[in-house]
Amino acid sequence: MMALIKKIPKGKVASYGQLAALAGNPRGARQVVRILHSFSELKKLPWHRVVDRNGRISLPMDGSGDLQRRLLRAEGVTVSADGAISLARHGWRP
Q1: Which domain range does residue 67 map to?
Q2: Which of 7, 11, 54, 57 has the smallest count of CB within 10 Å of its CB?
């Protein structure tokens, strides 16, 4: 799973469920959340490129969500003030 997360290219996002399905567990979105929470810093995972199934930042926008928005914008991803991202435009399709 970590190798899959590392493959998300700059300027693209993937959903928790999409990553779980690609890893062979279509109902494992929560496992993706746990992996990101536990290993993002240690394994240098691009946690900021993972969003919810609707293309929204799921973290609070007054904290880590704002950091995620800034990191994505720095990569060229268009993110609205409330954390919405167009999956049609920025979604990763491996």
Answers
A1: 2-90
A2: 54
